[in-house]
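> @MW can you paste both from yesterday?
MW: sure, first one:
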Amino acid sequence: MIANLKIGVVGPCSAGKSTLVQGLKQRGYPNARPISQEHSYVPYMWQRITNPDVLIYLDVSYENAQKRRWLNWTPDEYTEQLIRLQHARQHAHLCVDTNPLSAGEVLEEVVRFLEARG
């Protein structure tokens, strides 16, 4: 059942995790959760925080992340986030490149994926 589906959303800072989760909740997925895995040195933190039925990975470039929300971080710190996210990315059911997409397009892609899974 959709309402019971636990959805975890991971990705680097400014990838759109919170925005996607808000959209998913509005579309009938109340158990969607953003997971701030990018700040943890524990590779499987996403499992400990949420242990989702479905894991969505949102990808964003350093340049686009800075355009979306300026953060006082360097390209090396961004790269460190990607390293911390490797385990989650490898286990994600869906990876979405958010760079060329609007927030609405990301939401639609994820909803189509979830609906196709049943």
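MW: second:
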Amino acid sequence: MAKAKAKAKDGGKQIRLTLLRSRFGRTPGHAQCAQGLGLRNRHQTVEVKDTPENRGMIEKIRYMLQVEEA
């Protein structure tokens, strides 16, 4: 319940990310980007704020992700 209030209170745009390909066997920078976005397991979905920093990490590993505007 507290998370829902925090999201509504924040008011910022959110991006829904799903990790489709494994982090293992990738270059260290790509694996770190996935970890930085909060993605640990395949088919895990997270919502992150739409910031330039997050957009940069998403662009770097776009081939591993499914991206949806939330």
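> thanks! The helical segments are 2-10, 28-36, 52-60.
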